Amino acid sequence: MELSNKAAYLQGLVDGLGVDESTKEGKIIKAMSALLAEMAEALEGVDEDLSRAYDQINDLSDELEDLEADLYEDEDDDEEDEDDEDEDDEDEDDEDEDDEDEDDEEDADDANDDDIASEPFYEVACPNCGETVYVSEDDLDAGEANCAHCGVTFEVALEGDEEEPDEDAPVQYEVTCPDCGTTAVFEEEELLEGEPKCPNCGKPLDFEVTEE
Question: Which phi and psi (to 5°) does residue 125 adopt?
Fold first, then answer.
């Protein structure tokens, strides 16, 4: 039973009892009955307002969910478009890099060909098979070359590359110890400064240097 019906039922009981409104008790009972009826009516109005508010909130929530779904769908489409554009850009960049690498390789090959063409070569007969071998400056610096015919590696050097003796190098003498037989090498200054000793047995060596 709703509150308004309960309030109306209570007012009917008060009227049926024949309450005398001229007395203090009768006035209080009548006023309370009227107040309960007004409160019941007001509460019913509040319930109706709340119900309408709940319905509006539910409608707004549904609309918001639809908006979010549309928004996320648009974002997903935009991301897919951006991904496709990025992939296309990456493919173009890769193609450009490949073209640049090919150009660099061609330039490097041309530079190597120019270096090879400008580099001097020397004809040398292979000591193993007698075939002609072309020797480069790098081979001469390394001191060896490889025969392309028989695969033998042999030493190479230009004539006149032998090192000339250093005139400023100190004069050295070999001295054999008469006691232990050890041969030692002494520089001329050491022999002139004093009596040399055998590095093995420590005995003095009889050796004279005549200064010119």
Answer: -85, 130
Q: Is the dihedral of CA 38, 39, 40, 42 positive or negative?
A: positive
> What ranges make up the beta strands (E) of 52-200?
121-125, 132-136, 144-146, 153-155, 172-176, 183-187
pLDDT in tens, 102-150: 777 776 666 555 554 556 778 888 888 888 888 888 887 888 888 888 8
Nearest to 149 by CA among 134, 171, 169: 134
C-alpha torsion sign, points 78, 79, 85, 89: positive
Q: Is the pTM higher than 0.85?
A: no
Residue 199 has, within 13 A of its CA and on its CB side, a CA count of: 8
Tell me the residue ranges of DSSP E strands in 43-88: none
d(CA 58, CA 168): 109
Backbone angles phi, psi at 174, to 5 degrees: -100, 130
